[in-house]
Design brief:
heterodimer, A: mainly alpha, B: 80 residues
């Protein structure tokens, strides 16, 4: 294709796409005028019905908990796919030694590992009280071993996250979500029904099954991310 | 729309251009991560702190880590 044809093609399709976008935007409600009745409804009902203060968590882990289960398993399947493709069947190679040489990077980076774990746990634990939750806190937790590698050494990352433990957390997190859902089916009438005592609004011990599946997804997400880090780094760290 | 929202929106628009204009993949990964911080700020000023946190952890931890690993692998395969 010549440059001229490309330009003509871009001009036509660009103008068409722009017109479609403008047309679509013109049909949106005005700025600040929220048109979702369902959202308004849940905003007023969630705190009363589920005893949690973060309505987003009540939606993702309860009212729409089944959707989140699907998302959970998309992540699970993606991580399993990477592990299937990249993991060595029998890995008896000696792990390489390496170390970040800069004292400053080591000092600053490694001193942040502890705070990162605390922040991650905080974001998970308070997921249904304040913004955050299993996904956000889970990735923040996975950042701690990643930092052990980035500011320290590869062996520190592997020592802090043994494969058996990571696999266990990944499986029990994804499985725990399903089990909680099935328990709701048995104890109540529908899958993921909130059957646990709802506790007192504003406390950590509140929200019933929201707290349970929140922690399940934290396990699954953090372990999934660490697993990805392992598999990708193995590709880089070993000689061909 | 309050002025802060206008400013952050403009920065996000500008930042997207900067990410595209960065040609070196390693730099682009870093710039892309910083762009994620801008997006997180955008979500905060539009009152979506949950989404902001998700954006923050994905763009500053998971995404760059995997990209850097892939880039390192590619670089290893290239003749020096």
């Amino acid at each position: 294709m010549t440059v001229r044809t490309r330009l003509v093609l871009f001009a036509v399709s660009g103008a068409g796409l722009g017109a479609l976008l403008l047309w679509g935007l013109a049909g949106l409600p005005d700025f600040g005028h929220f048109a979702g009745e369902y959202g308004r409804l849940l905003n007023s009902a969630a705190a009363r019905e589920r005893h949690v203060t973060n309505v987003v968590a009540a939606i993702t882990f309860d009212y729409r908990g089944f959707d989140t289960l699907g998302e959970e398993f998309i992540l699970f399947a993606a991580v399993m796919g990477v592990a299937l493709l990249l993991r060595e069947a029998r890995d008896d190679r000696e792990r390489p030694y390496d170390e970040v040489r800069s004292e400053t990077v080591r000092l600053v980076g490694l001193s942040l590992v502890g705070p990162l774990v605390v922040v991650g746990l905080f974001i998970v634990a308070h997921g249904y009280l304040t913004p955050g939750g299993g996904f956000q806190g889970g990735i923040a937790l996975a950042a701690a071993p990643a930092l052990l590698y980035a500011a320290g050494r590869y062996r520190a990352l592997r020592a802090a996250s043994p494969t058996g433990l990571v696999d266990l957390a990944e499986g029990s997190g994804a499985g725990g979500y399903v089990v909680t859902g099935l328990a709701g089916l048995v104890a109540g009438s529908v899958f993921l029904e909130n059957f646990v005592d709802l506790g007192k609004t504003g406390m950590l011990a509140a929200g019933g099954t929201i707290a349970l599946v929140n922690w399940c997804s934290a396990f699954a997400v953090s372990a999934g991310a660490v697993l990805l880090f392992h598999e990708f780094l193995e590709e880089v760290m070993y000689p061909e | 729309m309050i002025p802060l929202q206008v400013v952050v929106l403009a920065l996000v628009g500008l930042g997207a251009g900067v990410v595209v204009a960065t040609r070196d993949p390693i730099r682009q990964t870093l710039v892309g991560g910083l762009y994620g911080l801008l997006l997180a700020a955008l979500f905060v000023v539009f009152q979506a702190p949950d989404v902001a946190l998700s954006e923050l952890v994905v763009s500053s931890v998971a995404f760059p880590f995997i990209l850097f690993a892939a880039l390192a692998k590619l670089r290893k395969g290239q003749p020096k």
